[in-house]
Amino acid sequence: MKKTLKQFLEAAGLTDAQFAKLLKKKGMPTPGSSSLKEKTLTEPEEDEKERVVKGMKKDKKGFKDRYGSDWKSVMYATATKVAKKNA
User: How far apart are CA 85 and CA 41, in angstroms?
Assistant: First the structure.
């Protein structure tokens, strides 16, 4: 049986506050906090991303067919990834 975090805490005799304090002490993110810190693009990376996006817009229909309503975010994410790699 898979236990939820709440069930685990109850079994361990910990309150949410105690658990959060323990995580903080260990330098770990607490539940609900965002631990993802994204690096901002440098100017050359930003320029490269825009260049890549312009090229990808030529195949806009292909992105729409493959990714549906998410096509634009997929295109920009892919362009960002390529720009970070190439710049």
Answer: 11
Integer Cα distance of 45 and 64 in angstroms: 25
Tell me if the pTM is above 0.85.
Answer: no
> By 3-state DSSP, what share of the chain in percent is helix, strand and coil, each rounded to 5?
70, 0, 30
Neighbours of 74 (CB within 10 A): 14
Q: What is the pLDDT of residue 22?
A: 82
More confident residue, 35 or 9: 9
Q: Are 49 and 83 in contact (CB under 8 A)?
A: yes
d(CA 78, CA 85): 11
Residue 29, helix vs strand vs coil: coil
